[in-house]
Amino acid sequence: MKLYQIYFFSLKLIILLMVLLGTLNIIPKKTKFFIVIELLFKVSLSLFLIFYIGSHNKYELDKDDRLIIMGSGVVILLLINYKKDFKEIFEDEHKLNDF
User: Fold this and answer.
1) In whole angstroms, what is the distance from residue 34 CA to residue 24 CA?
2) At 97, is the secondary structure helix, strand, or coil?
3) Contact 47, 31 (CB under 8 A)
4) Nearest 5 degrees, angle CA 75-CA 77-CA 80?
5) CA 51 centroid distance within chain
6) 46-91: per-residue pLDDT in tens?
7) Residue 37: closest CA among 94, 91, 89, 97
């Protein structure tokens, strides 16, 4: 396995466990850890779309298709509410659960 495959596999596994444990109400859904992992996954996915799939023609995609994929990565990056996420991560300990 390549390094990026291991990274995405471990990230998917963590998110799957968090969703499973969150739906069973074992852990709350708005912990700082959950917010950090969600933000990390969004940024990683968008950068992967922009740089890897958009720049490599391994999949024999047309130029227009690659531009759409790169554009979707940019849109994902632009739609992330960084201000809200960082505020929730670094705000007072009384409002959110700890790591």
Assistant:
1) 15
2) coil
3) no
4) 105
5) 15
6) 888 888 776 766 667 788 888 888 899 899 999 999 999 888 888 8
7) 89
